[in-house]
Amino acid sequence: MDASRETGGEPPRLAREVARYYERGLERDRLDAGYGPLERERTRETLDRYLPPPPAIIADIGGGAGVHAIWLAERGYEVHLRDPVPLHVQQALAAARSLEAPLASAGVADARTLDLDQGSVDVALLLGPLYHLQEAADRRRALEEARRVLRGGGLLVVAAVSRWAPILDGLRLGLLENPDHLRAADEAAATGRFDPPPESGFTESYLHRPEELRGEVAAAGFTVEDLVGLEGVGFALDDFDERWADPSGREALLGAARRTGHIPELLGMSPHLLLVARRPGSHSADR
After folding, report:
1. Measuring CA to CA, which residue among 212, 198, 124 is closest to residue 164?
2. N or C: which end of the chain has fewer CB within 10 A?
3. What is the mean pLDDT of residues 26-43?
4. Cα(241)–Cα(34) distance, integer angstroms
C-alpha cells in the first residue's frame, strides 16, 4: 500500500495533555483491567457481526497499542495500524512480533491526516480518535479522512464516550465527592467538553450524546447502520472482577449488555458507544 499523500500546511498534532496522558503507556493494558474486558468483548462481538471475511483490508486508525489490530491480524485480516503516539506504535509492533501476528503496516499518523491512499481499505476503525477531538471541525475532518481511505461500500466503526460517563463512572469510583471532578462533569453534560482534574484518571476529551454521534457520522457522508451501548450497567457493579472471573457471571454481564445495548433510552448509560456505518457506493466504482 502506497503510504504517500500530499498535504498542505502544518499537519495536525495531538493535544499536549492527551499526548502526555498516553505517553505513560497505560493504554496497552487498559482493556485487561476494571470493566475493560467487557468493553473489549462487546466491541469484538459487534465487529464479528459486520466485518467482511478475511483477508479484507482494515485501517485501525488510532489503534493504540494494537489490542484489536493484533486480534484481527491473527484472524487473517490485512491490518494497517496508525496512531499519533509513537510509544503505542512501538508497543503494537512488539506485541505483533511476540504473537507471530504480523501487521501489514504500523506507523505514527493523526486521524485527521492519514498517510493511506484514497479508496484503499475495506474497513476503517476509529475506536479512539473521536473522543479526543474536542472541536467539531476536527471530528469532521477525522471522519472525512476515514471516508477518503474507504472504498465504496466500505465499513466504518466508530467508538465514542457517553456524555454521562463522568457522572456514572465517577459515582462508581467515588469521584463525585471531588468538587473539581463534579464541575468538569457538569460542564461536559452541558457542552460535551470534558477537562477533568488529574485525579479523575483521564484526560481532555469530547463526550457524545448517542444521537449527536449518529448525526456527526451521517453529516460526514456515511449511512449509519447500527448504534450500540457497549457495556450496559454491568460496568458499575462493585464485584465486577469476581463476576467476570466466573464463566456464568461473565455470561450474565455480557447477556445484560446484549439485551440493553440497542434500547434508545439506555444507550447513554454505557460508558462507551459503538457506531457502525457504511460509505455509500460500491467497490467496483473505486477500482
Report:
1. 212
2. C
3. 95
4. 7
- Report the C-alpha gap between 15 and 71 in whole angstroms: 28
Q: Distance (Å, rounded) from C-alpha 16 to C-alpha 253?
A: 36
Grouping H, G, I as helix, E, B as strand and the rest as coil, residue 38 is helix
Is residue 13 within 8 Å of residue 138, measured between CB atoms? no
Is residue 44 a contact partner of residue 157, using CB atoms and an 8 Å limit? no
Q: Looking at the 3D structure of the chain, how many domains does it have?
A: 1
CA angle 206, 273, 240 (to 5 degrees): 105
C-beta neighbour count of 265 within 10 angstroms: 8
Whether the CB-CB separation of 157 and 123 falls below 8 Å is answered with: yes
* Angle, CA 60 vertex, CA 59 and CA 64 arms, to 5°: 155
Question: Does residue 214 lie in a domain region?
Answer: yes
Nearest-angstrom CA–CA distance, 47 and 24: 28
Question: At 113, is the secondary structure helix, strand, or coil?
Answer: strand
* CATH number of the domain encompassing residue 216: 3.40.50.150
* Matching residue, cell 476494571: 34
Domain interval for residue 80: 16-162+207-286
Which amino acid makes up residue 210? P
Q: Return d(Cα 163, Cα 186) in angstroms, integer.
A: 10
What gap in Å lies between CA 185 and CA 240, rounded to an integer? 24
CA distances (Å), origin 164, targets 90, 153, 219, 284: 33, 33, 23, 42
- What span, in angstroms and rounded, lies between the C-alpha atoms of 61 and 116? 10
Would you tell me how many other CB atoms lie within 10 Å of the CB of residue 239? 10
pTM of the model: 0.93
Q: What is the pLDDT of residues 85-120, one digit of tens each?
A: 999 999 999 999 988 889 999 999 999 999 999 999
What the block records as the C-alpha cell of 253 is: 454481564
